[in-house]
Design goal:
The complex is a heterodimer of chains A (876) and B (540). Chain A is mostly helical and 876 residues long. Chain A is built from 40 helices and no strands. In chain A, helix 32 (661-678) runs parallel beside helix 34 (706-721). Classes of the chains: A mainly alpha (876), B mainly alpha (540). At the A-B interface, helix 9, helix 11, helix 13, helix 14 and helix 15 of A face helix 1, helix 2, helix 3 and strand 2 of B.
Chain lengths: 876, 540
């Protein structure tokens, strides 16, 4: 088989032929990637080959360089950079030479070029690339070549980090804007897209008034193209991006151009154009909401750099009516996952409301009043959507009378013949419960609301799903209201839902069993709602909650006997079991402990057989089942020991589940809970647990988020075991030694929030572990146990060194601060004057300052405590 | 598997439509995971917290040194509150002794409770009030047969009254005030002192309780105590109590009542003890804060020379109240202000403007701004004391609040001053820093500076139409700033800057540019013109 044959075979109608070709290509990649890529590039550039074959060659080639998975992309880029220079040169030339020879767009060669650029540009290995592409724009007669080259520029600008392209900004802008002025529509469209992707590194050009005027002029003109909605659409998308990136520069264009352009685009026949125009204003609102937040947080000495120009407020009188009109453009048969004009208008209206607050009411309220009873369902729906959209922004005082007036007619509309309207009604009722609970938690409204929602629960699945959400919001609101009334009560004795609690729970239980509950996520929504009720009950509803608990248990029991075939049914089934486990877990936490203890045998029996059943292997079932076990451990404490011999091997299997790391993570958590709850009784199992935990820590394939949890688990174990932890001391401390060395590294990029989070949880893991070890060794007595001497001066120096290092890192979070203060205090308490030499002023003062300024009472108290102990250590 | 470039972001917006984002079952699972992790963290923290015994450790420490209020009480017996017993037990035992015990038990119980309340950190006032101990303590105040019990009860009540406002009210509601007032002439000095202290705490709670204390006619007894021969510690407390009687607005105390304290205050200002001086000066500053007849009352007592002397103290704690009092006096009419100036206040201000304490510099600027609002003769005194360069310097340095007061002061000079006086400001270089302040974020300050610039520009206008000030302002970058302030969201600033531009800079403006100047409307929003249809030619 040749490369061409294989590529051809990829398009065959015969499945085995396709699979054979894929296998052959995969083999080629595996055996000798470089020459294989070269061969692909030779096909790509060969105009005598069939178009589709060349396209396939290009895609295969691109896939050798990039993947959706970013870390894989980086790996492939590294392999590429390792190739021989001549080979890379050859492939790059082929890709460049292909530009302009393809008949279809977007160009595959353009994608290949971008993939290579991603690998090489940051290493300055292809400095001439942009110049080459730009020179291909010069021949104005060759439209195809200009389009492909612009596509390549667009892709490059999209995937290469902007800082590596900034030096090309002027050349790119000149070339691209030139094409916008001189080319036909395909060229202009490609040019605008390239420009949109370049915006981020054109800051200098946008800061220069003259250049900015020029660029803005060209884009605004493009929005007025007469014969291509594609160009208009691209130009509007470009303005959306510019608005977000360069909001502060937009003042001089706003009333002259951007406002009339977008307002008239909203009246376009072309849906995509309308969507972009709406998106423009959604972005303006987003931006101004953020700027107002920044202003609110700013202080006199620390004023905000930029402030809102209040375009949304200014445009309100024109924008609001326009959006309300767009709101009525629902499609007759709307797919819930489709994005359309009406949905865009609804989202934009809600943002506008958050942005301008009370003044929105003047426009929206009459619209609601006039259209709730309109003959056309689109208008009725629009009125309900509009009602929901203003629930955020205006003050509660302004909203209250409006909601009071509209809520009863809106509830009536739950009987509307149109499902979409009912769906919106259910949503709005939930919004009201969520945002303005006082409007419904009163005698006039609550009964009707409960009847309306109850009826809604029997309607179409999509409606019922939104009703479940409304029931959630209602329970939380009612519970919150009762708590506010009795802030000191440990338990809520009664609340607004007490008399209807039983009916609601039984109706929800019924809903979970509806034959069509698979649709519109109804099953999961109704079980979620049940969980909310199990968490938010008043004591006078306890019997119902307890009874519902028995129903859940029974359902779980029954589910064990079922066998399921077919992938879809199996998925639904595991989803069901997982939801039942989640409900069980909630009930264990919220039912009275004595009742849980009575049920414990039955619960464990069911959970154990579930771990061993067909679906017990599904990771989501395992995860929720482990969480249920953990909840039970915390309630039963030492009494849980009797189940250990059964659950122990299952837990170990869970710990070994590296691939489904979420399962491993809950198993680690469970081990910690076992230690904390059962104390010494867990000793016999700790050898095995320790072995698994240590081997997980050493495993590079385990997701990094689990490792800090394992360190915390060491701490839990050390505290629980006390003296019995001594055999593990040496190995734990040496693991902690290297973990804390890694955790002491300062975070290089403070804007890499994932990394910051990870480092802080790693630090948390180390500090929790140190805390556990110290507490465990010193024991509970008032005098430290002699075991504490096993912590040598070297260990202590290391711990203190670690804390000293992390205190200097500005990314340290309050949680870490509290834990670090705890560890320092513990050490001073035990070792007293021996610590004095280690407590250098610089970091100690900084740590105490952070503690005093944490804003958290417990931390401040702990800080005082620690400070005293430090003083004692220093001065006796 | 192709790249999708720059399309709209429906997927993220779609999740904002109705409550789609909350429907995702993965999201629900993530919430469960999150809750679980949170729960576990709390339990872990709770466990370690219990083992650490933070509260106990802190308490042990406190009990080592039970703090005693006031130096004179140091000879009293110190019964150590045992570290192992918690408050609950102690308070229960105190109640037992106070409610059911014999005379000696009562004294011992009250003393013990007073010790507990004298803890420096977190004395258990709440617990003592809840135990219902306030009422018996108030009864003990009347127990003239047992001066020691009177004293201990007074002390305990003083400490309760020093707690939150709720605590103070509890003491007042139990009827303590009349007793305390009558105790002011008790033969026992310690009891007297305790009563003074308690009443100070009560009056210091706020206008309501202050007037309540006044309604029990505290002043005659208090003024009797305020004799030079009185022991220092009582004198200090009594002065502080007197200042609390004068203190507070909404409403201020009845001036006709508290003015009876003025002669005493005038004497106290000369007391050698700094604490007494300071509290007396604070009292004077409260009294002088208001209508001109109040200022006259202070002036008539001839306190100004002493207040000005205090301005030269090397402690800012002494300077601050004196300066506040002087500052209040110069808010009066020109003749009242003149009296202060005649006593040589200007020399003191030179010294104060260079203080290292930010607050002193700020308050001095404020005082000067009130003087600058007076007549030209008084402005001339500011100029002759060579204060203008210092004020200009303060425009550019220090904290914002100080810069603001300095700007007010200079602005007032431009408003009331004559041509030569305004010229002096310009010669000293006020224009550049003023223009710089136009880019601050405080609309009030911008407005003040704009007024000042307008006044200076008016003075700079020649008959031939040229304006040397306008040129200065332009050079200092001020014109651009004023121009862009025409877009300010506040109407008043828009108007002021617009007037300045029209009057003094209009010929410099490019006609075309004004078209881009957006209109700012009333409701703080960007105003769009009617909707012009887009034109084809967007040459910006």
């Amino acid at each position: 088989m040749s490369v061409v044959d294989a590529l051809q075979a990829l398009l065959s109608s015969d499945q085995s032929e396709r699979e054979g070709a894929l296998a052959w290509l995969e083999d080629g990649k595996q055996s000798d990637l470089g020459p294989f890529m070269q061969a692909l590039s030779d096909v790509l550039v060969d105009t005598s080959q069939d178009t589709v074959v060349r396209q396939q060659a290009g895609l295969q080639l691109k896939n050798c360089l990039r993947s959706r998975d970013e870390s894989l992309s980086d790996q492939r880029a590294e392999t590429w950079r390792g190739f021989d220079g001549n080979l890379r040169e050859h492939i790059k030339n082929n890709a460049l030479n292909t530009i302009g020879t393809e008949d279809s767009h977007p160009s595959t060669a353009a994608q290949v070029i971008a993939a290579i650029a991603y690998a090489e540009i940051p290493y300055n290995m292809w400095p001439e690339m942009m110049g080459n592409l730009l020179s291909l724009l010069e021949d104005e007669s060759n439209e195809n070549q200009r389009v492909s080259s612009l596509e390549a520029i667009g892709y490059v600008c999209e995937c290469v980090p902007p800082q590596f392209l900034a030096e090309n900004a002027n050349d790119i802008l000149t070339g691209v804007v030139g094409c916008m002025q001189s080319g036909g529509n395909p060229v202009r469209k490609a040019a605008i897209k390239a420009l949109t992707n370049s915006l981020e590194f054109c800051k200098a050009n946008f800061d220069d008034g003259e250049e900015r005027n020029f660029i803005m002029g060209v884009i605004c003109e493009a929005t007025q193209t007469k014969d291509s909605d594609d160009v208009i659409h691209a130009a509007l998308a470009c303005l959306v991006r510019i608005m977000t990136l360069y909001y502060q520069h937009m003042e001089e264009y706003m009333s002259e151009a951007l406002f009339p352009i977008t307002m008239s685009a909203m009246r376009s026949e072309n849906t995509d154009v309308v969507l972009q125009a709406v998106e423009f204003w959604s972005n303006v609102c987003d931006e101004e909401i953020d700027l107002d937040l920044e202003l609110a947080e700013a202080t006199e000495l620390n004023p905000p750099e930029e402030t809102s120009k209040h375009y949304a407020r200014g445009a309100l009188e024109y924008l609001a009516p326009q959006l309300l009109e767009l709101l009525t453009q629902q499609e007759e048969y709307d797919d819930e996952d489709d994005w359309n004009v009406s949905k865009a208008a609804s989202v934009c209206l809600a943002l506008l409301s958050s942005c301008v607050c009370d003044p929105i009411l003047e426009y929206v309220v009459p619209f609601i009043q006039n259209n709730l009873e309109n003959e056309t369902w689109q208008f009725r729906d629009a009125a309900v959507l509009a009602f929901g959209s203003i629930m955020e922004g205006p003050s509660p005082d302004s909203l209250f009378p409006i909601v009071q007036e509209a809520i009863l007619p809106v509830m009536e509309m739950m009987k509307d013949p149109n499902a979409c309207v009912k769906d919106s009604v259910a949503w709005v009722l939930g919004r009201v419960c969520d945002k303005l609970p006082d409007a419904v938690l009163n005698d006039t409204c609550l009964d009707s609301l409960l009847i309306t929602l109850g009826e809604g629960l029997s309607m179409e699945p999509r409606v019922a799903t939104n009703v479940c959400w409304a029931f959630n919001a209602l329970a939380e609101a009612a519970y919150e209201a009762a708590k506010n009334e009795h802030p000191d009560a440990e338990m809520i004795q009664t609340y607004a839902l007490s008399s209807s609690y039983e009916a609601i729970v039984s109706k929800l239980l019924e809903t979970t069993d509806r034959p069509d509950a698979n649709e519109a996520n109804l099953r999961s929504a109704s079980y979620e709602a049940l969980m909310t009720y199990f968490q938010h009950y008043a004591e006078d509803c306890y019997a119902t909650t307890h009874q519902a608990g028995l129903v859940i248990l029974e359902r779980l029991q029954n589910s064990l006997g079922l066998t399921v075939e077919g992938r879809d049914s199996l998925m639904q089934f595991t989803e069901l079991q997982s939801l039942l486990c989640a409900n069980l877990q909630t009930l264990i936490r919220y039912l009275h402990a004595e009742d849980v203890k009575v049920l414990a045998d039955g619960i464990m029996e069911i959970l154990l057989s579930m771990f061993q059943s067909q679906t017990g292997e599904a990771s989501n079932v395992q995860e929720d089942a482990f969480l249920a076990v953990a909840a039970l451990v915390s309630v039963l404490e030492e009494d849980f020991v009797k189940y250990m011999e059964y659950i122990f091997p299952i837990t170990v299997t869970g710990l070994k589940n590296i691939e489904e790391y979420q399962v491993c993570s809950v198993a680690v958590g469970l081990v910690g809970d076992m230690c904390r709850s059962m104390k010494q009784a867990v000793v016999p199992f700790c050898d095995s647990f320790m072995t698994e935990l240590l081997s997980n820590l050493a495993n590079d394939d385990l997701d990094r988020s689990v490792k800090p949890e394992i360190l915390c688990c060491f701490g839990d174990m050390a505290i629980a075991l006390g003296e019995a932890f001594v055999p593990y001391l040496e190995v734990s401390l040496s693991v902690l030694n290297s973990a804390s060395q890694a955790a002491a590294e300062p975070v290089q990029d403070q804007n890499d929030f994932d990394l910051v989070d990870h480092m802080n949880s790693l630090r948390e893991g180390c500090l929790e572990a140190f805390t556990g070890v110290i507490q465990g060794l010193k024991g509970e007595g008032s005098q430290p146990h002699e075991n504490i001497q096993l912590l040598t001066a070297e260990h202590i120096e290391h711990i203190i060194g670690f804390i000293g290092a992390i205190v200097a890192d500005p990314t340290l979070d309050n949680n870490n601060v509290r834990q670090a203060i705890g560890v320092v205090g513990d050490l001073c308490k035990v070792f007293g004057a021996d610590m004095a030499g280690l407590l250098q002023d610089d970091w100690v003062n900084e740590l105490l300052r952070l503690g005093h300024e944490s804003g958290d009472l417990a931390t401040e108290k702990l800080t005082k405590w620690c400070q005293r102990l430090i003083e004692k250590a220093r001065h006796g | 598997n192709t790249y999708i470039a720059m399309e709209n972001k429906p997927s993220t917006r779609l999740s904002e439509f109705k409550n789609r984002s909350s429907r995702d079952s993965d999201a629900a699972r993530n919430r469960r995971r999150g809750n679980n992790v949170e729960l576990r963290k709390n339990r872990r923290a709770e466990q370690v917290g219990k083992r650490r015994n933070v509260a106990l450790d802190l308490e042990e420490d406190n009990n080592k040194s039970v703090t005693v209020l006031g130096a004179s009480q140091s000879q009293n017996i110190q019964t150590r509150v045992s570290g192992t017993k918690n408050y609950e037990t102690v308070i229960r035992e105190v109640c037992e002794a106070v409610f059911r015990g014999s005379g000696t038990d009562r004294l011992r119980g009250t003393t013990r409770c007073r010790m507990l309340l004298s803890k420096e950190k977190e004395p258990p006032i709440d617990e003592v009030v809840e135990a219902g101990l306030v009422e018996p303590f108030v009864q003990f105040l009347s127990n003239t047969d047992a001066p020691q019990l009177q004293f201990e009860a007074a002390w305990a009540l003083t400490n309760i009254a020093s707690g939150t406002s709720e605590h103070t009210h509890a003491v007042v509601e139990a009827g303590a005030v009349p007793w305390f007032v009558s105790l002011l002439d008790n033969p026992n000095a310690e009891v007297r002192e305790q009563a003074v202290w308690a009443l100070g705490n009560i009056a210091g709670d706020g206008p309501e309780l202050r007037d309540f204390v006044i309604s029990h006619d505290i002043l005659p007894n208090l003024l009797t105590i305020l004799q030079p021969t009185t022991k220092l510690s009582i004198l200090r407390n009594a002065t502080w109590t007197l200042s609390n009687l004068c203190r507070g607005k909404d409403p201020q105390p009845d001036f006709n009542y508290v003015r009876n304290g003025i002669p005493t205050l005038a004497a106290l200002l000369y007391h050698e003890d700094e604490e007494i001086q300071t509290d007396a000066a604070w009292a004077v500053s409260y009294l002088s804060d208001g209508e001109n007849y109040k200022i006259d009352a202070v002036l008539d007592a001839n306190m100004v020379p002493r207040l000005i002397e205090m301005l030269s103290s090397d402690k800012d704690t002494v300077q601050t109240p004196a300066l506040r009092a002087i500052g209040n006096i110069v808010t009066g009419d020109d003749s009242q202000t003149q009296k202060v100036l005649e006593e040589g206040a200007m020399e003191a201000f030179v010294h104060l403007l260079q203080s290292t304490a930010e607050n002193i510099r700020k308050e001095t600027c404020w005082t000067l701004s009130n003087i600058a609002a007076g007549n030209r003769k008084q402005i001339q005194q500011i100029i002759e004391a060579n204060l203008v360069p210092m004020l200009i310097r303060l425009l550019t340095m220090g904290e914002f609040r100080t810069r603001k007061e300095a700007a007010w002061c200079l602005s007032n000079i431009t408003a009331s001053g004559d041509y030569t006086q305004i010229e002096h400001l310009v010669q000293q270089g006020c224009l550049k820093p003023m223009c710089d302040l136009l880019s601050c974020h405080d609309p009030k300050l911008i407005s003040v500076v704009l007024d000042a610039l307008a006044n200076i520009l008016r003075a700079g206008q020649s008959s031939d139409g040229s304006n040397v000030v306008a040129d200065f302002i332009d050079e200092a970058g001020g014109m651009d700033k004023i121009e862009s302030l025409q877009n300010h969201e506040q109407e008043i600033i828009y108007r002021k800057s617009n007037t300045i531009i029209e009057k003094y800079f209009s010929e410099d403006l490019d006609e075309e540019q004004t078209e881009f100047v957006p209109q700012v409307g009333e409701n703080n929003a960007y105003t769009f013109n009617t909707q012009p249809l887009p034109v084809d030619n967007f040459a910006f």
